[in-house]
Amino acid sequence: QGQLVESGGGLVQAGGSLTLSCEASGRTASRHSMAWFRQVPGKEREIVAAVRWTTGETYYRDSAKGRFTISGIITMNMMTLQMSNLKSEDTAVYYCAAGSVWIGKTPSSYDYWGQGTQVTVSS
Question: What is the mean pLDDT of residues 45-60?
Answer without folding.
Answer: 93
